[in-house]
Amino acid sequence: MPITPSAPFDESDCIARAQRGDVAAFSELVARHQDRIYRFLVRLTRSHDDALELAQETFIHAWTALERWQAQARFSTWLFQIARNQAIDLLRRTQRVDFVEFDAGVADSLADSAPTPEEALYSTQRLRALERALQRLPTEHREILLLREIEDLSYDEMAAVLNISLGTVKSRIARARTALLERMPR
User: Fold this and answer.
1) Which of 78, 84, 79 is nearest to 51 (CA)?
2) What pTM was computed for the model?
3) Per-residue pLDDT tens for 86-138?
4) What is the C-alpha to C-alpha distance for residues 113 and 93, in angstroms, rounded to an integer?
5) pLDDT the model gives residue 4
6) In terms of C-beta density within 10 A (0-12 exposed, 13-18 middle, 19 or more buried), how is residue 91 classed?
7) 59-87: b or e for each residue (b if 16 or more CB lie within 10 Å)?
8) 28 in Cβ contact with 10 (< 8 Å)
9) Which residues of 127-149 are buried (b: 16+ CB within 10 A; e: fewer)?
């Protein structure tokens, strides 16, 4: 039975159906999560092309491993874990850890359209500075800030995605925030 747009999205039902081989149910799960996974990957890898490829690989991996997935953690947490592992593998293979300039077109599209031109300029400059500072962080700091501040994962969910203890999440997030603030211009 296909999911209709008027029916409320029941993720657990979709997951159960997808685990039984229902491709339409899995497509609904992909549609629901693909934007968040892509945003996470593009910021982690600093490449739109790599993020697109890794997002696709994430969902292919999820489809092939779905029958073994168990509901101890949220489905989205599991997807972020797969995406993170895909990205870390790519970053290790290509050894891309150097600074990459932020795409100005992205910052302009994120700027608030309501403020005065001076406020918009200041806002754009701060956003660019934040993105540059974020890009200069080590991968482990960048990924934990993205999961917490952008994707709004809980500390428990971050621990599951990163496969680290809750205490390590707390200390790493504190160190990452400090490192980010140190890289922000005054």
Assistant:
1) 84
2) 0.60
3) 998 888 888 754 444 556 565 555 544 567 777 777 778 888 888 888 888 89
4) 40
5) 45
6) middle
7) beebbeebeeeeeebebbbbbbbbbbbbb
8) no
9) bbebbbbbbbbebebbbbbbbbe
For residues 2 and 24, give the distance between their C-alpha atoms in angstroms, rounded to a whole number. 7
Q: How far is CA 78 from the centre of its chain?
A: 12
pLDDT of residue 105: 60
Report whether 120 contacts 111 (CB < 8 A). yes
Reply yes or no on domain 11-99+136-183 having CATH 3.40.50.920: no
DSSP code, position 5: T
- Residue-wise pLDDT for 23-70, tens only, equals 999 999 999 999 999 999 998 888 899 999 999 999 999 998 888 877
The domain ranges of the chain are: 11-99+136-183, 100-135
Q: Would the pLDDT of 8 be above 60?
A: no
